[in-house]
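for the record, two folds in this file. i put them one after another cuz i was lazy. first one right below, seq on top, structure tokens after. the second one comes after a little note so u can tell where it starts
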Amino acid sequence: MVQLVIIAFLFLITLLFACLKPIRSSYSAFEVNRLAHKTKSLEFDRFFNQAKIEVLFQALTFVSFFILTVYVTINFNLFFVVLLELFLVLLLEFLRGQEIINGFTSKLYKRYEKLLLRFSNKYDNILSFFVAKGRDVGPSLKIHSKEELFYLLDNSKLLLEDEMLLLQASFDFKKLLIKDIMVPLEEAITIRGDELLGPLVINELHKTKHTIFPVMRSEGEVIGLLNLVDVTKVNSETKSLRAIDLMKEDVFFVSQDKNLEGVLGAFLRSHQHLFIVVNKSKKAIGLVCLEDIIERLLGRKIAKR
């Protein structure tokens, strides 16, 4: 009776070590290296010690099963030893797959995890000797940063170059503000309201390859938008008109602190192609067109209207 109790005890110890598994770090190798100089955490300890703790549990499983085998061999005849060992191996494999056993060992590991991690760090040289070089510590379960995502995608070769650029642009798109992409008013091509639209002026406007131009008052105030299409519709025999005569006074203004996603929606709802950008004092400081925002969304240049 005592012998069976000892065998059961040794078997339970073997089962315990066989079922214990270290908690995998959710960080990938890339993310660990990226954040190494910034912070240290439990995730870092898990990442660097997982393989060593696995080796430790495997060694303890082997030792406990070896002791169990020796004890059975000493106390029973060979035929009974073979049958009992075969039964114990099959029982061990069966119990290792049971949810209730794994749930118990998981809770037990969490309780003593920090102690095991300290032990692994303390005896790093010894445990590392038994860990295979380049051993895979398992895939990361989470992606923690945009940099990690693009690193993994780049190495996987799953996306084409254009698809990678589009994905990169979509990430940046949500972070950008209008002031990040606007054309400063002093750099924009504008026209004074009192300027005569003679052949030379119209020709210069055509050369810019733009179709819409902010119309300015002498003191720098935006008073309207001139569409080159409207200029070309004017009868050549008509006396020269000023820009203020053909401009549209419906000017749409947008704050420099608006994000691109919101302004894109405003463009689509208003059916406009150009907004004037203003600062907190409502002073015009730049302009942005629909094509500029679409280029940021697509990650590449498109033909200007």
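(here's the note) second protein begins now
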Amino acid sequence: MAKKKKSKTSKTAIDTDDYSRKKVKEFDIDTNIKVAYKTGSIVYGKKRVLKSLRQNPFKMLIIANNCSQDLENQLNYYNSLLTNQLFIYRYKGSSWDLGLVCAKPYMISVIGIEEQGDSDLLSLKATSK
């Protein structure tokens, strides 16, 4: 067997870090909704959200992508009446997907976030502007 030669490498090549391979952590809305559902306080469903919106405003609303135009108009109307405007986030998935994120076997068209718990849902407000 032939002996392998030891290659001399410079210290700079060993000491440098390759940052291109490090993953940038993306904001995952599904996980944050699950965390808010378990640790915070949320209200879901059209009737319950509209009823609660009249009494005490939420910190944020999440509506499904296939939410009806009537419901969206109602939410925007109530939002316009409030002194502090709510942040309304349009979820990219359907109402079935939003229901599955909340661990429910049915469709959920709108979620009202009263208390976010350990999630970072309110950081969506800063990133969307």
